[in-house]
Amino acid sequence: MAAKTGLAKYVIVLTTVTAAIMELLDTTIVNVALNQMAGSLGATIEDIAWVITSYAIANVIIIPMTGFLGEYFGRKTYYLTSMVIFGVASYFCGASDTLWELVFWRFIQGIGGGALLSTSQAILFDAFEPKDRGVASGLFGMGIVLGPTLGPVLGGYILDKYDWSQIFYVNIPICVIATILTVLFIERVEGEGERKAEIKIDYLGIALLTLGIGSLQFVLEKGESEDWFQSRMIVTISIMAFVGIVGFIWQELTTEHPAVNLSVFRYKIFAVSTMFTLIAGLGLFTSSFVYPVLVQRVNGFTPYEAGVSLVAPTLAAVFLFPIIGKRMSAGAPPLPYMFAGICMFIFFGFYSGTATPDMGRWDFFPMQLCRTVGISLLQLPLINQAVAGLKPKEYPAGIALSNMIRQLGGAFGIALANNFATNRAAQHRSDLMANMSPDNPLFTERITGMANNIIAKTGDVFNATSMAYKQLDLAVSRQAYYLAYLDTFRLIGIFFICILPFLYFLRTPKLSAEEAAAMAKATAESH
Question: Nearest 5°: CA angle at 273, between 58 and 320?
């Protein structure tokens, strides 16, 4: 597809970035609706979590295969079909009357949504001249950050005004408009979808990928609620994940026509950059997950207030993406940006570890601004470096694998945050309870004062002491989780400290002017 100019270019930008935002937004928009869904469908909170898990599993399975599927069916056809699948599944999600009906359609929605990320990225970059593709990276990077951040905001607003089903119906008009614009403005690549007879489908590779990644995602999502390896089910599925992933790697490296081209990992820059992509995904999704939980559970924010408090810092930093993209298009080296982004995330982790229970919305603004600036500085170089140096035919595989690894980083981070926060809360609760003894005069004085206050308000003399103990127990639990969430923020900072030294391995030798020009051209065209 030739580079576009004028109105066509801006329509393609609008279509592809909106599709990417919509796909990522749906990974977080349901988080604030789980309680309402559980009540409406008669499900437990543990079971309703399958609404998140099924989407994530489908997403992670389909993303690494988008390059192959786009080549087999034709990129435009595959993109349109995925958009339609996403929209139809969104309708049936909203119309579901039972939990497992909703889980099924969320899985189908994830199958359609998985293609929207990598394929949108490839179509967007093709619409720009090679020298301008750094700007395209900036625009797409905005979508990557805006999607997960806007999810809780939009979800909270919809829940305040409407029923939970509307969080799915809101996708439908967007899908319809994006489908029409795709038909009218996005051209087919010459020869796309015409090589079906020459392409051999790697059925075994697809089956092993589904088994391995699906099982791994299940373990990451459900391990905490099932007590990890104390559960026979988690042990069994972990073995399935190991067999599936090892078998998939062996199959893809030995078969003549792999569904996913894993040979791109032989390039050092790509291999090392995926580690940064994993941690960047961990930082992006985990911080977006922990913050709303903290401010709702400890600071008393409503879901909508928690989401709105993320908007200002996100918008303040998101405008950095086109600026950084333009600088990189002009030949600016990516490593200084990555270094600054990692340092900003380290600062964010430890700065957020100083939050207090009485902080208001704007008190969190500097912390969240650090987070979004860090993402802005880190994400763009990763988008460019992930496929820099690959051969043209390897670009789709590189982009798809990079996107999958970012999603896996987010899933791993959320699972880790849940497990870590729960364990740390138990430890903090134990430490706090150690001070609550009848032999401690301060404890006795506190209980007596609380009981007298209850008597003054209710007149209930007989139950006042037991009610005071219950109130104090709730206060201890709240304090324990507050301290645990602060520890989790610090853990995010520690992860970024650990990867900082590996920037050295992304260094490239100094090139001549001719070699540098060739490298810049290859990097720009790698999208």
Answer: 90
Tens-place pLDDT, residues 226-280? 777 888 999 999 999 999 999 999 998 898 888 777 888 888 888 888 888 889 8
Contacts of 178 (CB under 8 A, 6+ apart): 15, 18, 19, 22, 83
Q: How far is CA 220 from CA 43, 61, 100, 226, in A?
A: 21, 14, 20, 11
pTM, whole model, 2 decimals?
A: 0.77
pLDDT digit string, tens, across residues 472-498: 878 888 889 899 999 999 999 999 999
| Residue pair 72/193 in contact by the 8 Å Cβ criterion | yes
Location of structure tokens 């039972």: 98
Give me the count of residues in the chain: 527
Name the pLDDT band for 517 (thresholds 50, 70, 90): very low
R_g over Cα of the chain: 25
The separation between the first and the last C-alpha atoms of the chain, rounded to the nearest angstrom, is 13
CB 51 within 8 A of CB 103: yes
Q: Which residue in this structure is represented by tokens 């990129």?
A: 75
Cβ neighbour number for residue 277 with a 10 Å cutoff: 26
Q: Which amino acid is at 400?
A: A
At residue 116, the 3 state secondary structure works out as helix
Q: Are 58 and 111 in contact (CB under 8 A)?
A: yes
